[in-house]
Amino acid sequence: MPELPEVETVRRTLHNLILNKTIKGIDVYYTKIIKEPRLTDFINKLVGKTLIDIKRQGKYLIFIFDDTALISHLRMEGKYFIKDQGDKIEKHEHIVFNFTDKTSLRYHDVRKFGTMDLRDIDKMYTTPPLSKLGLEPFDPLMTVAYLKGKLHKKEVAVKTCLLDQHIFVGLGNIYVDEVLFRCKLNPTLKASKLKDKDYQNIIDNSIIVLNKAIKLGGTTIISYTSSLGVTGLFQNELNVHTLQGEPCPVCNTIIEKTRVGGRGTYYCPKCQK
Ligand SMILES: [Zn+2]
């Protein structure tokens, strides 16, 4: 499943490749990807519009077509490809945006869990799905006071709270393990036990880990000539995630695996007491 750094890498790649293109037509082969509005309105609102920006909020890609925002979530397997319009439509290409320059942007999704919604740009942040998101660590509004306000009464594992996208946006299962390792916090610790310095550490280390992952995701872009699927290089930088049985890079204690909120969780029993 793509996490925030992978989605940001897709955003940057598409931003470099398809900005200022104008939609000539849209072919839809699997309609259920489109949540709102209904299909004919979806097509009518986009045809003739020009892509002026691509933003990201959490794991949502936001394509700004003049006054309309196309909000896309890749879920498990969603990918974008850029191809010539003459190229054959492949099996899992469900939605094809044809541009006036004879290229096309194709949404490919083996699992079909991805979603697309259209919103007027002046309402996109105040209506779902974007209105339901919590803050990213990069957001100027993400402060100790914000995080403490959300978490200080929660008798739930800190890891589970940080995975809740209504509170904290950007950490998936891989990155949350890495952030908690850097913070020297046990993933099962109840959020109510966090101290002010822990909140600040969580924010600071989330920024460090995500920025590093975004940077490494970017290093593989050059190979995405036909596919925009992302497999970054961050796996080489992991300290604990998937490394049970290996020595901790800080103290050499053997890394353990457990489950927290149903998710496979990796930690150093000494550094993260
Ligand atoms: Zn350790």
Task: Please explain how this structure is put together.
There is one protein chain. This protein has about 270 residues and is an alpha+beta fold. The chain is about 25% helix and about 25% strand. The chain has 6 helices and 11 strands. The protein has helices at about 5-20, 40-45, 145-150, 160, 175-185, 195-220; strands spanning about 25-30, 35, 50-55, 60-65, 70-75, 80-85, 95-100, 105-110, 115-120, 255-260, 265. The strands form 3 sheets. The chain has a 5-stranded mixed sheet with strand order 2-9-5-4-3, with helices on one face. It has a 4-stranded antiparallel sheet with strand order 1-7-8-6, covered by helices on one side. Helix 1 crosses helix 6 and helix 5 packs across helix 6 (about 195-220). Zinc ion (ZN) binds near residues 248, 250, 251, 253 and 270.
Structural descriptors:
four-stranded antiparallel beta sheet, 26% helix, N-terminal domain of MutM-like DNA repair proteins, binds zinc ion, Helicase, Ruva Protein, domain 3, alpha+beta, 23% strand, five-stranded mixed beta sheet, 273 residues, 2 domains, 6 helices, 11 strands
Briefly summarize what is shown.
26% of the residues lie in helices and 23% in strands.
Please render the helix and strand layout as text:
Layout: H1 4-18, E1 23-28, E2 34-36, H2 39-46, E3 51-57, E4 60-65, E5 68-73, E6 79-84, E7 93-99, E8 103-108, E9 115-120, H3 144-151, H4 158-162, H5 173-183, H6 196-218, E10 256-260, E11 263-267
Parallel strand pairs: 2-9
Antiparallel strand pairs: 1-7, 3-4, 4-5, 5-9, 6-8, 7-8, 10-11
Helix pairs in contact: 1-6, 5-6
The structure holds zinc ion.
